[in-house]
Amino acid sequence: MSTGFSSSSCRFADYFVTCGLDTESGLEPDELSALCQYIQATRFSDGARGKLASADEGENFEQSPLRRTFKSKVLAHYPDNVEWNPFDQDAVGMLCMPKGLSFRTQTDTRDPQFHSFIITREDGSRTYGFALTFFEEVTSKQICSAMQTLYHMHNAEQYDILHTPPTPRSPEDPRPTPHHLHAAPSLSRLQRFNSYDISRDTLFVSKCICLITPMAFAKACRKVLEQLHQAVTSPQPPPLPLESYVYNVLYEVPLPPAGRSLKFSGVYGPVLCQRPSTSELPLFDFPMQEVFELLGLENVLQLFTCALLEIQILLYSQHYQRLMTVAESITALMFPFQWQHVYVPILPASLLHFLDAPVPYLMGLHSNGQDDRTKLELPQEANLCFVDIDNHFIELPEDLPQFPNKLEFIQEISEVLLAFGMSPEANPQCSEGQSKLRGFRSGDTASDKRNGNLAGSPLNSYLLRENQTIARLQALVKRTGVSLEKLDVKEDTSTNKDLKVQCDEDEMKKHRLNIRVREVFANRFTQMFSDYEVFVIQPSQDKESWFSNRDQMQNFDKASFLSDQPEPYLPFLSRFLETQMFASFIDCKILCHDDEDKEHTLRVFDSRVDKIRMLNVRTPTLRTSMYQKCTNIEESEKAIEMRLCKIDHTALHPHLLDMKIGQGRYEPGFFPRLQSDVLSTGPTSNKWAKRSAPAQWRRRDRQKQHTEHLYLDNDQREKYIQEARNLGTTLRQPKLSNLSPSVIAQTNWKFVEGLLKECRNKTKRMLVEKMGREAVELGHGEVSITGVEENTLIASLCDLLERIWSHGLQVKQGKSALWSHLLHYQESKEKRDATPAGLGPPGIIHDTERRKSDASCALPPLKVSLIQDMRHIQNISEIKTDVGKARAWVRLSMEKKLLSRHLKQLLSDHELTKKLYKRYAFLRCDDEKEQFLYHLLSFNAVDYFCFTNVFTTIMIPYHVVIIPSKKLGGSMFTANPWVCVSGELAETGVLQVPKHTLEITFECQNLGKLTTIQMGHDNSGLYAKWLVECVMVRNGITGHTYKFPCGRWLGKGVDDGSLERILVGELVTNTENEERMCRTPPMQQSPGMMRRFVTISPNSKPKLNTGQIQEGVGEAINGIVKHFHKPEKERGSLTLLLCGEYGLVWALEQVFQHGFKSPRLFKNVFIWDFLEKSQVYFESVEQSQMTQDENWLMRVRHFCHFMRAINSTPRNIGKDGKFQMLVCLGARDHLLHHWIALLAECPITAQMYEDMALLKDHSLVNSLIRVLQTLQEFNITLEASLVKGIGI
Predict the structure, then answer these.
(1) What is the sign of the dihedral through the CA atoms of 1015, 1021, 1024 and 1030?
(2) Per residue, what are the HEC states of 1181-1238?
(3) What pTM was computed for the model?
(4) UDENN domain: which residues (predicted)?
């Protein structure tokens, strides 16, 4: 992609380089490779022998000399230096020949190999390299005899080995061992590797020619290099000296301007390149077809998803060019987003330690073709996507969300591939040599057995492979009515007949396939983010202060954006919005107000989004999950065709240079050392090089083009690109230079700083979201976080912890570094405490005297135990993998507010940490570790239910204790009590409680947050009256304790005669633990005015005045309204708002009690008595047939119907319980305001209430009715426990 290459360059190529064997310095073993093998070998020095293939006794010395790597040198580069792109000798040398020099004899294959590479500078801009590696005969006698000597030494060593008693070969040995060799005589064993005999064999060594260019014109560069190589190997010398061609490509061939094509001359034929205009997708010149053939469509899409979510990606192949093609293709498909992290498509052997990097990366690792995946030891795999390109398979991290509309997307891309005669499945026959595009009409497929296509449906070919996705695709196709039989797999002959394409058909096809696939991908983002601008938060302050506070700023309204999205998109989108690439994209948008400013990708994307908005008549903010296919493929194809049919520019032809006679001759078969004097400087008279202003070609497009290269001239922006964009990502690419220990230390130090910064940002973000949400419940601000979003943030915290725990790891065990550390800790702890203590459920005190103690101590908090929490996780059979266990453990610790404390305890075992981690690891940097734990401690300020809400099906032990009143101890109580516990997820059913202990422990499926307890007794025995203070319930895993206050009698003839009550619970927060930070106010409570006036006189029931009562009703209703304004997944318990402390039932109780005439001595009168009398009155009026308004009769019938139903229920609930039930049902059916109106007019009210009663004040009753009417718009669903036994 044309991201950020140097805008000063207007030449096609900046440098021409040759690398190879420096005969002066002779054969030097490649120290870097050797060092890397040494590093790998020492990695496992503590007895656990590593499986790293190349760690076999240090590859370089056990290998036969022809298989060893030797140092390659940059032999020459022309010109010496270019101001806008300083020559980086180390990087170029490493990447031209990533494995160093290799030797061959005449018996080996010696085909030239082409590969490209990329050098990322510190400012994020890129330079491309294109290298052709071929073999030349070694003419130096010294080198040949040195090789012979090495062979003698090697054979002697091998002979010694053979004559020692045989030991079984280590299973790690990667070399194939033919079975017959074991028994064969020792000599044939010696010739197991190709040998070299100076008298008989010819020795060849690798050499490389390379172009360094500002833009990636891969096909053109390949042609230039292949023709140059052909010139030295062909029997006929080329028409001009080689210098002329190299000079021409360096100095006389300009970059084609945007939207134009250019033709220049190679040694034997013309070379074409074309560049997209500023309104098209950025330049991309790698064969996307190869990626689909190697990996298959399904895998490409999964890899694409991983890249978008910034998961660590490791590509693995024995072909350098494949690594580059896959990496560049995936990043190109991300348009308009750009990969922001470490990007090293070819990782030189000497930089293997970089796989330790605890940051997102996209790297390519070269395999030697003999090892399988199991031999590869990777530092961290918890969040790694591993792509084995040559074997067409991909390993994905757990919990990877699906890309939105995945099936329809696959269907659309399949159609594109099929139109080019490609199967959407990986094609194992695909190799470098034969990745020629076979274009055929669907009729020809029958004959094409090679491609696995059978006659009939083009999709059949790969349906045979029983791929589930494809089966689903077939079903989808049937539903949508697309007939694949008639699928228009048309041959593309759409070009105008009179226009002749200048490049060959094959190349044209590649261009077409590339642009089609890219357009389909780009269209997904334009559809998904068509209204993104609405949600961009423009900064209120000036740019300078915005830059300095960039870390703390929110730049996109994620919650509102997500609330507009179709449900199935959320798992993917909520994670994608948290990525660095998305943040950078939005930052870019904020910085570029006008079109002139915008960088190329953003401008193209915005223009496409505008087009969609104009086309779509639907309201732009309403998202549908309707799949919209890509519509602008045709015009994009046309643009490319037009450029290739009519070449816009032709460069100067190569010509003789001013060289002395005899210069420029060379020996056939050898690429010569070119004349540096003629190549070191360019022409002085060239019209486009001379101008100080940009070239005349470029004048017209200057402005556009300037922005196309991500080149920002003002310093502020430059600083911003560095600072803001690299939030938490301090490195784009490792320094490709000699690896002194100090360089490695410095790199690791950067990682440690980066991890700490990322931890600070993550904790802050999570707290702001969470606090923001609780602040809303306290009546401030707007709600912002959704369940999906909270899950995303916690998942990304788990990922960060995994990366911290795998940084600097000595020995790798299992896929999760954190869980592996925990297991080591558990093992060493259990060895130390071999005593049987600590096995029973900790913290429950079995003491019969306990009931006399205070209610709050009834359930002492669970003992804090890291090991116990691990055991809980180990006992959950649903969690199968180490990564899953680590994540569950983190969630549980967060919910228990123990994460920081547990990790501190884990890291306090210094011996263990030393054993597991290298000196430079994050976990061994004391200051950073302290700060990190301190950041995590801040999570204790908020309540998370991230364990309870996620593991909904696991079994959990609960412990219930009933606490009778201390004043009237229940010691004489004879009846048998029972309870039934309900939570947000389920309820238990009736559980009998032993009456002597009044406590019970039971196990059942996760109930979620607890909401209510129904409790009662069977009224048996002599003394069946019972005054209960409260019930306590504790979750045995999370330690959450709920208190269900009661304070009422259960029994016939006392209180309201109730034998059962429904109690509403609230989470009790532990304040005793000084280590914890301040606790948050409990969830769901609005600390309104009520608290103030209820505390006036705690013992006598306070008499509230009408103002306070109105306020109470207002607050209760307000709580319910807020409840319904939250996203569904975020709503707490509605029961608490209806029946809890200061809920709706309590508020209406105050209304009815106000001015209620005080009864005569000893006789308690309840509101229910008043309601029953009113019911009798209404029924008599109804029967007396007095002419009444139809509406009034309707309300009366409803009221009487509900009263009768509640009175006839088989449950033994008392009068107050019945009143509660009536209020709940009235709220559910939106009848409360009608009933208040009825009762206010009813004559019974006049009898039973004082004159100053609220119910007799018309204006107050009317305002009460208005407030209750606001409930009409909500669909209230009651918890089953509230309406059991009522059939309405």
Answers:
(1) negative
(2) HHHCCCCCCHHHHHHHHHHHHHHHHHHCCCCCECHHHHHHHHHHHHHHCCCHHHHHHH
(3) 0.73
(4) 54-599
The model's pLDDT over 105-125, given as tens digits with 9 standing for 90+, comes to 888 888 899 999 998 877 777
Task: List, in order, residues 6 or more apart from 943 with CB less than 8 Å away.
Answer: 774, 1067, 1069, 1080, 1083
| Residue (of 82, 13, 17) closest to 673 by Cα position | 17
CA distances for 404 relative to 128, 401, 624, 627, 629, angstroms: 33, 9, 12, 10, 14
Rounded to the nearest 10°, the torsion over CA 865, 867, 868, 869 is: 90
pLDDT in tens, 24-53: 777 777 655 555 554 444 444 433 333 333
The CA distance from 127 to 2, in Å, is 10
Write the CA distances from 39 to 45, 351, 601, integer angstroms.
10, 10, 42
Mean pLDDT of 902-917: 91
DSSP per-residue codes, 608-635: HHHHHHHH--S-TT-----------HHH
Give Cα 270 distance to the centre of its chain: 46
Q: Are 198 and 148 in contact (CB under 8 A)?
A: yes
State the residue for tokens 């870019």.
588
761 vs 375: CA distance, rounded Å: 37
Query: What's the chain's average pLDDT?
Result: 76
> Do residues 206 and 137 touch, judged by C-beta distance below 8 A?
no
* Per-residue model confidence (pLDDT) at position 73: 87
**Three-state SS for 683?**
coil
Q: Specify the range with the lowest mean pLDDT, choosing from 39-48, 84-93, 1069-1078.
A: 39-48
3-state secondary structure 538-565: CCCCCHHHHHHCHHHCCCECHHHHHHCC
**DSSP single-letter state for residue 861:** P
Specify the long-range contacts of residues 223-227, CB closer than 8 Å, at least 24 apart. 223/266, 223/269, 223/271, 224/249, 224/266, 224/271, 225/114, 225/130, 225/131, 225/132, 226/112, 226/114, 226/132, 227/266, 227/267, 227/268, 227/269
Q: How many residues does the structure list for the chain? A: 1288
Distance separating alpha carbons of residues 259 and 274, to the nearest angstrom: 7
pLDDT tens readout for residues 402-455: 999 899 999 999 999 999 888 888 776 654 444 334 333 333 433 333 333 333
Question: Over 60: is that where the pLDDT of 152 sits?
Answer: yes
The number of beta carbons lying within 10 Å of the beta carbon of residue 632 is: 13
Q: Are 350 and 333 in contact (CB under 8 A)?
A: no
